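Usage example:
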Amino acid sequence: MAKGRVKFFTDRCKACGLCIEFCPQDVLGFDEHTINTLGYHPIKDLKPELCTGCAICGVVCPDLVIEVERE
Amino acid sequence: MKKVFQKPESLTDAKNHYCPGCSHGIIHRLVAECMDEMNIREKTIGVCPVGCSVLAYDYFNCDMLEAAHGRAPAIATAIKRLLPDRFLFTYQGDGDLASIGMAEIVHASARGEKITVIFVNNTLYGMTGGQMAPTTLLGQVTTTSPYGRKAENEGYPMKMAELLSSNEGSAYICRTAVNNPANINRTKRAIKKALQVQEKGLGFSMVEVLSACPTNWGLSPLDGMKWIEDNMIPYYPLGEFKVKEEQ
Amino acid sequence: MERVLMKGNEALAEGAILAGCRGFFGYPITPSSEIAEYMARKMPKIGGVFVQAESELAAINMVYGGASTGARVMTASSSPGLSLKQEGISFIAEAELPCLIVNISRGGPGLGGIQPAQSDYFQATRGGGHGDYHTIVLAPSGSQEMMDFAMEAFELADKYRIPVMIMAEGTLGNIMEPIIMREPVSKFIEKPWATTGCKDRKPNIVNTLHLGNEELENRNHQLFNKYQIINENEKRADTFLVEDAELVVVAFGIMSRIVKKAVVEARKQGVKAGLVRPVTLWPFPDEHIRTAAKNARLFLSVEISMGQMIQDIQLALAGSVPVEFYGRIGFTPNPEEILQEILRLAEREGL
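Running the assembly step on the lines above writes:
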């Protein structure tokens, strides 16, 4: 069971990919089946079960896309 | 589960206009998080510059002014003098602060104005399309140094943190970067410290933040972060340059 | 009422203080520096703020910041300094921040000299900086008016949310005249737009950026609607012997007092001369000019410049009466030479 959970405001995402790169658990990736209103493939938790709720993704995100919850 | 990370109250819901991977969004959030944690949003007045962050008044959820190019420290000076119990911050880029606004920033620091300056150094003029700034590195190609900045022609990049730390009026001067999570957290601590220095009335405070402009650097957002590490930090060393202690 | 002998610059500074001005931001320049010096002495004693800025640019931007708090604030300078301030004045006009800007004017162009002059008339009345805007411009003619206009300037500034300029020749700053001290102002207009911290309200924003086409055009129309109201309500001029005047002299500031003497002399010599003295340079008192033109065969604009206000007189008259010009630079014309000019023109025109 995952210790953390990420919630996305995907319409804010500009697909810069910083969260994907800095996530220590490799939870995140682009949602290649979606194009948001800004024209990007937004991020998605591809492996949510690995999330520890460390919030590094939120810290590096320039666009307030991510909210993080932790146990 | 409890929320451990969310948008600070001191930012509005507006989507920012910055390019993908631009560090402004991170730095805005750090300032806002500090305002939230110190519970000072309702007594903070911000002054934004001319440059990419010209629209910052749409993003900060507090009273805001938009300054003429380079003049934010003069504006903040007057407000702080007239309303000494408010928190004043200016948010300025390197063209704004280190070029056209050089006189205002140096004298605000020399007078020891009790304001906090967030100085975003991304080595060029972003909004106007990537022209050379006083902070452009030697050899760096910009649209107005197309063959690379040369010392004999364009002089040397200016180190503002070092320069301002020599002023007696400066109470806290720090240079940080936002190129990785650890440095982002250090930047937040520095901004908070700067605001606390203002609260204590110790004098002028500035946090210079080395920041990425992937668009004008012609790099991906991730390579932009690496470029800060590889090129900027060696010339612009991180750390605290002036820390005035309480008497 | 107490009568005191005061220098014009100090009368103006004291008037500002009586009007509740609690912020002065300036940079030294002759012949305006006494205003800053007076404020430097007074402000710390009355809980006000005095900052000697690093430049004229910083000073005017301190005024921008100071005015945004809702406080009554001002700056004072002299002609070359006013040139430097123009960017800031454009911002202040656009942001609709009330404040007082004083020009104790001297001769130009360039560094010019420190002799009194009126050659900043265009700069003052046409906006002066970039973009479509106006400031209200008041032109005092003596020490009493230096005080009174400073007080009125703050009222007008607050009423219309507009920067108000006082343009006074260096002479007016330096001469000493007995004046009646005024009572301090105690009633002030609320300023809910001020940036003072957003406690118990939504954030206020002071901004001059309008990126959208329509937004920018609407903004300019808003400003011009306000200027129209000012134009309709605030034009002021003094007139002297204009009812039957065949030769109407127009002069403002210190010049108007000198011309008045020449007009009296001309009357003694049988020339039906009169005087219109614009008190507001913007809005320009064109109706007073037209009223004075009823019996006029000739207008004469007397200025300490190469001829600037003459254009506003010509615009007001729209070709109905010819307008002559007499002006000097470096010197202030004396009553005798103006009288000679009036007599010369009267003889030429058979008046």
